[in-house]
Amino acid sequence: MKKLIIVFVLLLSALSCFSQTEFTTCLFDTSRNRVIPLAVYQPHKVNLKTKVIIFSHGYDGNKNSKSNQTYAYLTRFLSQKGFYVISIQHELADDSLLAMEGNFMETRMPNWERGVANILFTIQEFKKLKPQLNWNDLILIGHSNGGDMTMLFATRYPQLINKAISMDHRRMIMPRTRNPRLYTLRGCDYDADSGVLPTEKEQEQFRMKVVKLDGVTHSNMGENGTEEQHNLINQYIYGFLTRR
Asked: What would the DSSP string read from start to end of 152-209?
């Protein structure tokens, strides 16, 4: 029996207005008996210099089977800029719900660990499917709970990624490290838990970057934001990606 089953669900035609190809697909992790739905945003030109971004969406209460497609304002933008973007659907209908009480570093850890496993499996299999991409400069981006997953991955597998960016994650402590490079955009309406974000001294010591966006809330970073807010987010994230 094959260890991996890859099911291609839908291939969309090229979208000329974005000069890219978008498609959805599924991976199947037999070791966990788990389907991993993906939305892929492929740039117009792909070569050995094409960097890969793994995107993780925010928590949606297991109610939306297409949560990974609701950040198209960002994933399409990054694809237009030449990045190969893979957006993971972390929530399935029969998953246990995210803990809403207790010490979140403990009660939410199983959810984050499942997300980390999804990310790791996706990386491993796409390296086989797309060996022609630049896997040496891998980038992770995540919003909210997806940002928590992103920072846990950066803690557990720092050697696999070049940069990790969170969009207003609030629970998982950012590892204090220079490698990978870590960045976070902060909304204006919620504070992160104590110790999650680096101090100004730590930012300087570890070359980490914390940017607070005035007038942009936590939910604005998802599909509820305005075009102006989304454009601002896009520019900051692109700036992080192009910074050395």
From this structure: HHHHH-GGG-SEEEEES--SSPPP--SSSEEEEEE-SS-PPPTTSSPPHHHHHHHT-E
* Size (the chain), residues: 244
The values of phi and psi at residue 153, to 5°, are -60, -45
| Per-residue pLDDT tens over the stretch 31-73 | 999 999 999 999 999 999 999 999 999 999 999 999 999 999 9
Q: Exposure string (b/e) for 40-77, b if CB count within 10 Å is 16 or more?
A: bbbbeeeeeebbbbbbbbbbbebeeeebbbbbbbbbbb
Joined together, the tokens standing for residue 85 give 């973007």
Given the DSSP bridges, would you call strands 20-29 and 4-11 parallel, antiparallel or unpaired?
A: antiparallel
pTM of the model: 0.92
Domain boundaries in the chain?
4-242
> What is the full DSSP assignment across 99-141?
P-SS-HHHHSHHHHHHHHHHHHHHHHHHHHH-TTSEEEEEEEE
Residue the block writes with tokens 């790791």: 120
Quickly name the fold that domain 4-242 has.
Answer: Rossmann fold (3.40.50)
* Contact call for residues 122 and 37 (beta carbons, < 8 A): no
Tens of pLDDT, residues 182-210: 999 999 999 999 999 999 999 999 999 99
Q: Which residues contact 180 (CB under 8 A, 6 or more apart)?
A: 154, 158, 161, 162, 163, 164
The CA distances from residue 218 to 72, 136, 183, 190, 221, in Å, are 17, 31, 16, 7, 6
